[in-house]
């Protein structure tokens, strides 16, 4: 998804900085259903992992949300793991966010996915300048070297490149990014090579959006992803996983289950595991009765989860947050009559595209996830 980082998001990055997990207390404040499966006993060896994007500040206070996070098997930093959050000033990496998430995960028997090493949207300005002027791969090497060796064995999989495809305005299917301008379209393959050298044990991944619907744009993007994976594999470059973000949008209608299934099978045939990396649902009509809205959201998620359930190549499902209150989708809502009058959160017109509502009450989407998790 293309977007600008919200002010709320940046403030939260900064607010999270000084916190430590020593502040976290023991038991949950109240009982909420654990996310996906019997969360109290995460099953890290299960065939398919379920998890969520988290923010370090959510791991501190003893809240129902924290209880739900403890039930996840896989944690992904929502945006605190990006280059600009780790190394805002050149040569001054700050590890507090990844450390906090890794410490929490270790304590609760969970896995962590690094997100992400390269993503245009959250590349610090100094790095953009350095890459565009110097065109020196050493900038990438230095960046990867700040993270991969430090977390080797703790972060066992990394999204190396996030959102590299653009079949509408790109260059031969590649998004015109700083990386693409500085190093050419081969940067994706080179980034995978560099990551592999720095942590040969890590599973390496590329991740993108708009790959699920039956429309010309998604169709072209699927084709481009398959071509890219084919080229990477043919060159012998290590690539273990492909992530389908799974940001579903009700205005686009239903996803194409046959197309998604075929896409996953094609990827799997090339020897890559598939992950649903950022599942959530953007609503199109907030004025309907809540029960109807929740049913439509669950139906959209279920469409994708049905495919997941059938495809053994899908090794993990991650939702992009757990509670609607903290979902990035609140900033992406279509403008409604209500939203014009006040902010969505204040006027009770939040997007309801995650498993739990603002009060951490599970919704039908939660049940859909639990059903497929029970099969894992
Ligand atoms: C989003 C976060 O959810 C926001 O809070 C933040 O302001 C920007 O990033 N694709 C991605 C994620 O890979 O990192 C994005 O997350 C959503 C789109």
Structural descriptors:
alpha/beta, 8-stranded parallel β-barrel, 13 helices, 9 strands, disordered N terminus
Quickly describe the structure:
The chain has helices at residues 7-16, 64-70, 83-86, 96-107, 125-134, 138-147, 178-183, 187-198, 216-234, 257-269, 290-310, 337-341, 364-375, and strands at residues 49-54, 74-77, 111-118, 155-162, 203-208, 241-244, 247-249, 273-282, 314-319. It contains 13 helices and nine strands. The site of (3S,4R)-3-hydroxy-2-oxopiperidin-4-yl beta-D-xylopyranoside has 11 residues, from loops.
How would you characterize this protein structure?
- There is one protein chain.
- It contains 13 helices and 9 strands.
- The protein has helices at about 5-15, 65-70, 85, 95-105, 125-135, 140-145, 180-185, 185-200, 215-235, 255-270, 290-310, 335-340, 365-375; strands spanning about 50-55, 75, 110-120, 155-160, 205-210, 240-245, 245-250, 275-280, 315-320.
- The two termini are about 30 Å apart.
- With about 375 residues, it is an alpha/beta fold.
- The longest helix is centred in the last third of the chain and has 21 residues, at about 290-310.
- Residues about 1-30 have low confidence and may be disordered.
- α6 (about 140-145) packs across α8 (about 185-200).
- The structure holds (3S,4R)-3-hydroxy-2-oxopiperidin-4-yl beta-D-xylopyranoside (XIL).
């Amino acid at each position: 998804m293309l977007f600008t980082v919200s002010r709320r998001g940046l403030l939260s990055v900064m607010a999270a900085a000084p916190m430590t997990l020593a502040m976290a207390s023991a038991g949950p404040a109240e009982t909420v259903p654990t996310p996906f499966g019997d969360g109290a006993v995460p099953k890290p060896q299960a065939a398919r992992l379920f998890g969520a994007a988290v923010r370090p500040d959510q791991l501190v206070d003893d809240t129902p949300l924290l209880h739900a996070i403890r039930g996840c098997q896989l944690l992904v930093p929502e945006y605190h793991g990006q280059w600009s959050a780790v190394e805002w000033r050149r040569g001054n990496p700050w590890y507090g966010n990844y450390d906090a998430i890794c410490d929490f995960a270790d304590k609760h028997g969970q896995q962590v996915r690094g997100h992400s090493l390269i993503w245009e949207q959250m590349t610090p300005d100094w790095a953009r300048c350095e890459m565009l002027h110097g065109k020196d791969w050493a900038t990438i090497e230095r960046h990867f070297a700040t993270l991969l060796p430090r977390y080797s064995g703790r972060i066992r999989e990394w999204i190396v490149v996030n959102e590299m495809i653009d079949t509408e305005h790109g260059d031969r299917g590649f998004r015109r990014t700083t990386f693409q301008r500085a190093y050419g379209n081969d940067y994706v393959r080179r980034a995978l090579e560099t990551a592999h050298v720095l942590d040969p044990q890590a599973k390496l991944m590329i991740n993108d959006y708009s790959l699920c619907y039956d429309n010309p744009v998604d169709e072209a993007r699927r084709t481009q992803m398959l071509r890219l994976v084919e080229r990477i594999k043919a060159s012998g470059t290590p690539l273990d996983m492909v992530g389908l973000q799974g940001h579903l949008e009700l205005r686009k209608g239903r996803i194409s289950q046959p197309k998604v299934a075929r896409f996953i099978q094609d990827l799997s045939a090339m020897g890559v595991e598939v992950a649903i990396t950022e599942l959530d649902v953007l609503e199109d009509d907030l004025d309907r009765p809540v029960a109807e809205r929740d049913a439509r959201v669950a139906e959209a998620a279920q469409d994708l989860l049905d495919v997941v359930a059938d495809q053994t190549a899908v090794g993990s499902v991650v939702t992009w947050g757990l509670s609607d209150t903290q979902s990035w989708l609140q900033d992406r809502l279509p403008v409604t009559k209500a939203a014009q009058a006040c902010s969505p959160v204040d006027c009770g017109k939040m997007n309801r595209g995650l498993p739990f509502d603002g009060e951490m009450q599970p919704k039908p989407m939660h049940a859909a996830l639990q059903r497929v998790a029970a099969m894992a």
